[in-house]
Specification:
- By secondary structure, the chain is α/β, with parallel strands linked by helices.
- It is 41% helix and 14% strand.
- The chain contains 13 helices and 11 strands.
- It has a 7-stranded mixed β-sheet with strand order 1-10-7-2-5-3-4, sandwiched between helices. It has a two-stranded parallel ribbon with strand order 6-11. Strands 8-9 form a two-stranded antiparallel ribbon.
- Helix 8 links the parallel strand 3 and strand 4.
- The chain is globular.
Length: 345
């Protein structure tokens, strides 16, 4: 016991007070289940499927495997969203934990399809999930007639049971065919949301970081041109403030290992920490920091089925200009100093 007390004193552990209001307890519980969903639910679902296969109920596993085969194209064909799941009360507690807000700068005409470029990726894309995979921040009221789809790495949609859950929120595969399906729908009304920096940008996610991986990211530009989808820069202030990350400068041994694992597995493995459930000094729960996601002005795009390299470069420059303007116009409101600017790599 004395050793534990000594360790806690050395670590300066700050415990949560006992008289915290129930509302805040529920907010923490909502975030616990969200973090669990991101970090462990897929593995639990896969284990449950394997156990079902070797149990007396194996016939159910066989039937579900047949369903997986028949339903294999759904994640690349708009998914299978559920307004009921997106409107669960738990998401309002999740929103209020940080809190998360969605800010509209201009109206978006629902007769167009849009490609939202979400920046920065952060560690767990909390602002992207809260704003585009739930109705907690009122996306449908802010942008009537638009349906958001957050693109996610394809292999998650191969995990039994887990795929059904994430599709309910409006998550779809990030394969090219998936984005093309959304952006090619006649009549408009679709908003494909892409975390442009991808998994590698998560390795840069730490408080104060303003580095975006964008200079070589041009696939989404080409996609917008081919389908005539209007580009919308989105910047989520506070996204990088949620976790501390172990120092991993480019060229370090840790960074090389992380980059190699990212190439092999497709996902980044940032070594992060923040707070816990009953104390504020360490753990995997994000800090209670506000996330303000600003949806910028759309960049009109004329459809070009066969864009040249010059066409892509020109639109890419316009996009970077639009994103930079969005950041500069709003940074003072969200506590970023006037001498701070975005850095593109």
């Amino acid at each position: 016991m004395f050793l534990c007390v000594f360790v806690f004193r050395r670590m300066k552990v700050e415990f949560a007070p006992l008289n915290i209001p129930l509302r805040r307890r529920l907010q923490t519980a909502a975030v616990v289940q969200w973090v669990f969903s991101f970090l462990a639910l897929a593995q639990c679902c896969l284990a449950a499927f394997v156990l079902l296969c070797v149990s007396d109920w194996w016939i159910l596993a066989a039937l579900y495997a047949g369903w997986l085969y028949l339903d294999r194209d759904t994640p690349t064909s708009g998914g299978r969203r559920s307004h009921w799941v997106r409107s669960w009360t738990v998401w309002r507690y999740f929103r209020d934990y940080f809190p998360i807000s969605l800010v509209k700068t201009v109206d978006l005409d629902p007769s167009h399809n849009y490609l939202f470029g979400f920046h920065p990726h952060g560690v767990l894309v909390a602002g992207g999930f809260g704003n585009f995979c739930t109705e907690a921040s009122g996306f449908s009221k802010l942008f009537p007639g638009l349906t958001p789809y957050l693109l996610m790495l394809p292999f998650w949609f191969r995990v039994p049971f887990f795929r059904e859950y994430i599709m309910c929120g409006g998550l779809v595969s990030s394969e090219k065919a998936s984005a093309s399906y959304l952006l090619s729908q006649q009549g408009g009304g679709n908003a494909a949301v892409v975390a442009v920096g991808g998994a590698p940008e998560a390795l840069e996610a730490r408080p104060g970081a303003l580095t975006l991986q964008l200079l070589q990211r041009k696939g989404f530009i080409k996609l917008a041109l081919k389908h005539g989808a209007w580009l919308v820069p989105v910047f989520s202030f506070g996204e990088n403030e949620l976790f501390d990350q172990m120092e991993n400068p480019v060229g370090s041994t840790l960074r090389r290992v992380q980059e190699r694992l990212q190439r092999v597995m497709g996902v980044a493995l940032p070594l992060v920490h923040a707070r816990g459930v009953f104390q504020y000094s360490f753990g995997l729960l994000p800090y209670r920091k506000p996330i303000n996601t600003i949806v910028g002005r759309p960049i009109p795009v004329v459809q070009n089925p066969s864009p040249t390299k010059e066409d892509i470069e020109a639109l890419h420059v316009l996009y970077i200009q639009g994103l930079t303007e969005l950041f500069e116009e709003n940074k003072d409101k969200y506590g970023i100093g006037g001498d701070k600017h975005l850095t593109f790599t």
